[in-house]
Amino acid sequence: MSISSDGLRDVVLVVVLLIALVVLVTLVVTRRRLLFRNRSADGSDGAAEAPQAAVVVHGKKIDDRDARRRQIEVLSGRLGWRAPVWLETTAQDPGRGQTEKAVADGASVVIAFGGDGTTRVVAGALAGTGVPMGLLPAGTGNLLARNLGIPPNRLESSLHIALTGRNRTIDVGHVELAEAQGTPPRLESFLVMSGLGFDAEVMATTAPELKKKIGWAAYVVAGFSRLRGRRTPVTMRVDDGPVQQRKIRAVVVGNVGMLQGGIQLMPGALPDDGWLDVVVVSPRGMTGWLPVLGAVLTRRNHATVEHFRCRTIEIHADKPMFAQLDGDPAGKAQSLRARVAPLALIVRVPG
């Protein structure tokens, strides 16, 4: 039996229509499945797929918090992120509990919004979790941000880095501070510098009102009034080396090397080299600070400025000395033990 050309044409047309109908039905069903899958608990479509940050904010460091929060939400939306979770620190919890909650809730990045102290606490909770830390530097020093190329007090630029920058894995310093020989030590973390002596004393005695007025220059003003002072006898052990004796005004253990104004206290120090850099300063009297200043500014060696590089260091003083952690006063301590945790923290940096 033969089929006419008209009949063949009709058969082909029916087959084409059937195929088109099957394709259309498949597309509709697939689209509905995707919409259902992407529908969040609050009924919004697709929003659950967008990443979300958590902002751990030191409220006292931020002027007009509500305006800054709205600004961050708008900028996050423009970058394809959901409005971030906003977690404020308290006097009882300066950021650790808030950070742990953010990680448990699945934040894609945890952003420290404050000074070096807030950054230090957030980093201590994030280390080893694999969750990146972003920085919105809003303090006086902002030393970690400066060393990583993140602009201080420029919210839009730093938020863009926190959400879209590249990941850089850096070291974390861990330190044990004991107030006196035989007392249980406090366990702390640091990202910038920890130390005993002159620099810690300056930080502890700088007036907060002066810091608000003139910023980090307030430390310079306070430092001049503390230049006169006696050296403190200490014993020191670097890694597995012999015990050494010194008379010092200050010892600084650093993960990065640059201070405010671009001054390199520890030339060559890198935050991801797996080492701690140590500076021991031992000037005699007021005039002894001149060669110290010259050695720091010119990056030349001098008998009163010693540099070490190590993985661990122990320092025991004859009497309690002022201590500091990333520029924040940490009371007094008679002993300090520091070690490095290589590549323990992921930080968002400029891409």
From TrEMBL:
<keyword id="KW-0444">Lipid biosynthesis</keyword>
<dbReference type="InterPro" id="IPR050187">
    <property type="entry name" value="Lipid_Phosphate_FormReg"/>
</dbReference>
<dbReference type="InterPro" id="IPR017438">
    <property type="entry name" value="ATP-NAD_kinase_N"/>
</dbReference>
<feature type="transmembrane region" description="Helical">
    <location>
        <begin position="12"/>
        <end position="30"/>
    </location>
</feature>
<keyword id="KW-0067">ATP-binding</keyword>
<keyword id="KW-0547">Nucleotide-binding</keyword>
<feature type="domain" description="DAGKc">
    <location>
        <begin position="48"/>
        <end position="179"/>
    </location>
</feature>
<keyword id="KW-1208">Phospholipid metabolism</keyword>
<keyword id="KW-1133">Transmembrane helix</keyword>
<dbReference type="Pfam" id="PF19279">
    <property type="entry name" value="YegS_C"/>
</dbReference>
<dbReference type="InterPro" id="IPR045540">
    <property type="entry name" value="YegS/DAGK_C"/>
</dbReference>
<keyword id="KW-0472">Membrane</keyword>
<dbReference type="Pfam" id="PF00781">
    <property type="entry name" value="DAGK_cat"/>
</dbReference>
<comment type="similarity">
    <text>Belongs to the diacylglycerol/lipid kinase family.</text>
</comment>
<keyword id="KW-0594">Phospholipid biosynthesis</keyword>
<keyword id="KW-0443">Lipid metabolism</keyword>
<dbReference type="GO" id="GO:0016301">
    <property type="term" value="F:kinase activity"/>
</dbReference>
<keyword id="KW-0808">Transferase</keyword>
<dbReference type="InterPro" id="IPR016064">
    <property type="entry name" value="NAD/diacylglycerol_kinase_sf"/>
</dbReference>
<protein>
    <submittedName>
        <fullName>Diacylglycerol kinase family enzyme</fullName>
    </submittedName>
</protein>
<keyword id="KW-0418">Kinase</keyword>
<keyword id="KW-0812">Transmembrane</keyword>
<dbReference type="InterPro" id="IPR001206">
    <property type="entry name" value="Diacylglycerol_kinase_cat_dom"/>
</dbReference>
